[in-house]
Amino acid sequence: MKAVAILGHGELDRLELREMPAPSPAQGGVVIEVHAAALNHLDLWVRKGARDFGLTFPHILGSDAAGVVVQVGEAVEEVRVGDEVVLDGWLCLSDDEFVHAGEHSLCVSSDIVGIRHAGTYAERVAVPARNVLPRPAHLTWEEAAALTLSHLTAWRMLMTRAALRAGETVLIHGIGGGVALAGLQLAKLAGAEVIVTSSSDEKLVRALGLGADHTINYRATHDVAGEVRQITAGRGVDVVFDTVGAATLPISLAAARRGGRIVVCGVTGGAEATLNLHGLYWNQLSLLGSTMGNLSEFRQMLRAVSVNRIRPVIDSAYPIEEVREATARMEAGRQFGKIVLRVRS
Predict the structure, then answer these.
(1) pTM recorded for the entire structure
(2) CATH 3.90.180.10 fits 2-139+312-342, yes or no
(3) I want to staple 150 with a disulfide (CB 3.0 to 4.6 A). Which of 92, 93, 182, 197 is the partner?
(4) What CA–CA distance (Å, rounded) separates 174 from 181?
């Protein structure tokens, strides 16, 4: 089969379109013929060797996909050949207390498709049957591929970890990335008032078109938290939705109301931060980490997307042969929404 693989860690020139052996389904697993695969910053970290992931080369990248089931393994009953599906890329490899409690994203032994497990930048990918669910009927293949990692992450951040309620205010840092835009869509669905930030006025205008209530250009002001306080009449926001990390944590702490919640899922702006513990305890803030979601949240998110006909924001779609150009665009931070590879034309 045709696939994008890396033969070692490095820069864009490490991405190679090559022939790879087609996978077979494991017991309890399926093989998906991939129609589209979305890019994530995780793919950059894996390619560059940001951590010792213990890869075996050549390694296929990619965690998001939408496609058609073409093979099923033994003991698979709920999925059939011909099903059009989307992929939940979180792989729980243990059978522990968290799995029994339905919290698959907390299981002790886990992986993500595209890290140690062969990824989705390929014509076919093999995954456990429990990790696929029907494609929302109103979505294109590209939209369906762009949906799961970003919207599942945003769903858990807002609905589960932050317990967002209608009428609350949410600050979203760095609007333009897939998870941040998913957070905007879901926060508005939940009835929240949303403030977004960016260094790009163009992105801020587009965010207003998607329902954002207030915008802040963080390059045009020296006090983002002060502007948030002004918008909220001095109160601060109920929830800070942070995909950036160290660069925005001080702003998040200053912008949250007393008793507010700050939920963090990423470190594109750095992983090591200085924390003012006085402000944390005195203002009774909750600082929450969040990673993807469990199977129940995956189903809830897909149901909400289907009922409300939510469409992920697509920045651009490239044929798989142009994977380097697609990745360069994401790496430069030029996108507004998800970048997708068309695997099957």
Answers:
(1) 0.94
(2) yes
(3) 182
(4) 9
